[in-house]
């Protein structure tokens, strides 16, 4: 399972402009933060990234309310997906809304990390009104960015370069931002190594923009040897996804620690896969690995339902797949919230 990582991958390649952070610089940065814990966040009333960020549906009041719940359980970071079409539609307005989001997050003592590109779920995105959720279907409206076949289109890639560089130059010195996740699950949706050229480019653009914050992309599929080697070589801190039970997850941590850089797990926690708060989160804290689970408030993304088992009648599954809170802010499982608060040093 772990053969996809070559120990030589920690050597800097010639594929980036600028400098990859040294292990010393990365570890010094990491020591400046409390143990990082949080969730992948989208408001309950947004089905996807466009519904979150477009002017007509951007909802600061809901974000403020829900980030208050995150603060209440001690979360100090949230992983938040952007989308290039929201920028293309209205660059100035999009940046204004990012600034609004950061103001709200800072009020709640949360330092988010932003995600640029994404190879997961629906391949074609359109601005404007977004579709309604498909009943009982996990993430039915989530959008790839730039999508397929757009990820091979030179004109689209030129637009992405403008977008990524502009956002990084605008917010690259903003202390309210933890870091940048340049590409979510590169190679997913059966793209595999065909995503490597775009992955390479987005790291090049980031090095040209040269933000103060670290940049990374998550290792997520151990069979993608070339993609994984590139990611490990070019990330300032190492991020990864793991939805396996705790013993298998611990082995991944042990392997990735061999590269000598800080580790942040940017996706975990799928209850029916036996990746659970009560087992995985304490292990991550013990290992000093940042812990960012998938799902926060159950809403239009339908991530209480599993990838494998849609529920066409829309009934609540016997056990939620992801998510921590119901729409009214009550916990799905109080014992999980109590544990998260305890691990984050929040007294009752």
Shape: globular
Q: Helix content range of the residues, please? A: 25-40%
Q: Total number of helical segments?
A: 11
* Number of strand segments: 9
Strand content: 5-15%
Poorly predicted residue ranges: 1-16
How many domains? 1
Order of helices and strands: HEHHEHHEHEHEEHEHEHEH
**CATH superfamily descriptor:** Glycosidases
Largest sheet: 9 strands, parallel
Mean pLDDT: 95
CATH architecture classification: Alpha-Beta Barrel
Write up what this structure looks like:
- Residues 167-285 form the Glycoside hydrolase family 2 catalytic domain.
- It holds the Pfam family Glyco_hydro_2_C.
- By secondary structure, this protein is an alpha/beta fold.
- The chain has a single domain (7-343), classed as TIM Barrel (Alpha-Beta Barrel), CATH 3.20.20.
- Helices cover 35% and strands 11% of the residues.
- It has helices spanning 23-31, 49-53, 60-72, 84-89, 91-107, 154-171, 196-209, 225-234, 246-256, 277-286, 334-343; strands at residues 37-40, 77-81, 113-118, 179-184, 215-216, 218-219, 238-241, 263-267, 290-293.
- It has a nine-stranded parallel beta sheet with strand order 5-4-3-2-1-9-8-7-6, covered by helices on one side.
- Helix 6 (154-171) packs parallel to helix 7 and helix 10 packs parallel to helix 11 (334-343).
- The longest helix is centred in the middle third of the chain and has 18 residues, at 154-171.
- The protein is globular.
- It starts with 22 loop residues before the first helix and ends in a 5-residue tail after the last helix.
- Residues 1-16 have low confidence and may be disordered.
